[in-house]
Amino acid sequence: MSRESLFISENDIASQKQYINDINTHFSGRLTYHIVTLGCQMNVRDSETLSGMMRDMGFAQAEKEQADIVLYNTCCVRENAENRALGNVIWLKELKKNHPDMIIGVCGCMMQEKGVAEHLHAQYPFIDLIFGTHNAYRFPEYLHRILFERCRVADVVASDGIIAEDLPVMRSEKHSAFVNIMYGCNNFCSYCIVPYVRGRERSRRVEDILSEVRSLKDAGVMEITLLGQNVNSYNGGGSEFANLLRRISDVGIPRIRFMTSHPKDLSDDLIAAMRDVPNVMPQLHLPVQAGNSEILRRMNRRYTREHYLDLVNRLRDAVPEIGLTTDIIVGFPGETLEQFEDTMSLVEKVRYDSAYTFIFSLRRGTAAASYPDDTPADEKSRRIQRLIDLQQNISQEILDAQVGKKEIVLVDGQSTRDAGYICGRTPRGHMVNFPGNVELLGKLVPVQILSAGRNTLKGEIIHA
Question: Distance (Å, rounded) from C-alpha 244 to C-alpha 180?
Fold first, then answer.
């Protein structure tokens, strides 16, 4: 597939906008919608596009129980995410009995799994709309058919995916924003379903990314997070992502973050960009998954424990105050207690600010689904609890070490726990609660850190 054939044509996008206009003409002000988003930040960004489309159709947002259109944007990275999605959709069947005109749609990664869309369409006739990640740009066309023809639509494209530009978007936040820079993954880690549902890697054009970032800056956005299954391999990897960071920095957005980074593609140029570009924040999500080289080999991660630790040392040499976060899988098929202890010792060496920890979840169609696994479930539970306890202690020590520091915090909301408090994140990514009012939302303010709780910090504004 040539690079240009990855992009949906302007004519196809114009057709979808015409469907939006037709729906607006006939239904504006008459219908409401609700989107339930499960999974990662890329799903959140996808839901912002779906929401933008329905805003332009003239629909208003509503609570799930009252909405005329309910969309579930699903995740399939772990089994419990699938079960949660299916359980909630089945619950809507009862709701639809009292609201027979309700349109129920299911989309996202789960629909791209082999056989899932066909099964849902055949077994759950109350679901009106099913589509996947690769053809989400055609949502206006599908909804047009349902509204005007009163039919069910199930359309999932089995391909490596495409890129659709110039679609409507309704951002979930005013002062921060997600920006996709690439889609898909070529890594095929043995446990991971993502390459099968999101397709192969494909990168957006630099000029399209910069245009979006300029628009966000003009709208007052203060922080962007660049998204990709593996941002380090943007446009084939090498120095391309570091160059993109520098180009984006020149636009003038005050804060830039990015995720997710694969250790095997973390280049010297990227480390240098994190050191030299002032508005790239000192925070990096660098999933290790396991601390034992043999387990990493069987995971098809393509780096060793030693290589990962060397990356951490180089990052901290370049950016001493960097905050590192990670993902870790416990109980990978065949993992011995000794191999798990290697993960524990790696966590002690690296000292992550936080870690997302999971017990291995078998995904049909992946290589690891066929690996023998003789570790009892209760042993896996004991191991992950040990890991959680260790990481919580490290996280607490890191938070305690922030007390007394002066930080520039981007205010992004009101505290959910303390009346009269607002909250925001430090450059390193720590959440800080401090007295203030909503007039400071979206502002960068100097804060003195006074104390550390279990997961957050408390402070006060430094007044000149």
Answer: 13
- CA distance linking residue 197 with residue 53, whole number of Å: 23
Residue 178 CB contacts under 8 Å (≥ 6 apart), including other chains: 41, 42, 44, 45, 48, 224, 225, 227
Answering whether pTM is above 0.90, one says yes
Digitized pLDDT (tens) for each residue of the chain, 464 residues in all: 455 568 999 999 999 999 999 999 999 999 999 999 998 999 999 999 999 999 999 999 999 999 999 999 999 888 887 888 888 888 888 888 889 999 999 999 999 998 999 999 999 999 999 999 999 999 999 999 999 999 999 998 876 678 999 999 999 889 999 999 999 999 999 999 999 999 999 999 999 999 999 999 999 999 999 999 999 999 998 899 999 999 999 999 999 999 999 999 999 999 999 999 999 999 999 999 999 999 999 999 999 999 999 999 999 999 999 999 999 999 999 999 999 999 999 999 999 999 999 999 999 899 999 999 999 999 999 999 999 999 999 999 999 999 999 999 999 999 888 889 999 999 999 999 999 999 999 999 999 999 999 999 999 999 87
Torsion of CA 313, 317, 322, 323, to 10 degrees: 20
Residues paired with 431 in a beta bridge: 425
State the residue for tokens 């966590």.
347
Distance of alpha carbon 340 from alpha carbon 317, whole angstroms: 28
- Six token digits for residue 172: 């979930």
Beta bridge partners of 221: none
